[in-house]
Amino acid sequence: MSKRKISRRKFMKSGIAWFAGTAAGLGSMQRPTSVKKAGVSRTSLKSLQVIPTTCEQCPAGCGINAYLNGERLVQLFGNPDHPNNQGGICAKGIAGLNLVN
Buried-most residue among 46, 59, 72, 75 (CB within 10 A)? Predict the structure, then answer.
């Protein structure tokens, strides 16, 4: 069994280089921009009423847009104007639709 000797300096250099490369790769990732802006029902072609609110599924309180077709809640999306989540929504937030309907 051969023991590879690596100096602390070489270890730190390679670790920093790996971290910088990973950070540069992640920095180019964008948030999805396919947020539903025009609220139109696919089935009835009626315009949907949009109500900006907050999600209560966890303590984070993310901003969501609730889409109503008449009196019925039909979809939840992240609110891109909310400072907390900036349009993102987690699985718990999306599942909030099942609690209401």
Answer: 75
Residue 81 lies in a domain: yes
The CATH number for 58's domain is: 2.20.25.90
- From the list 41, 95, 40, 101, the residue with the least C-alpha distance to 73 is 101
Side chain identity, residue 51: I
* Token pair for 64: 């969501």
- The overall pTM is greater than 0.90: no
Lowest mean pLDDT among 31-35, 62-66, 87-91: 31-35
Amino acid at the residue 9: R
Q: Residue 36 — pLDDT band, cuts 50, 70, 90?
A: very low
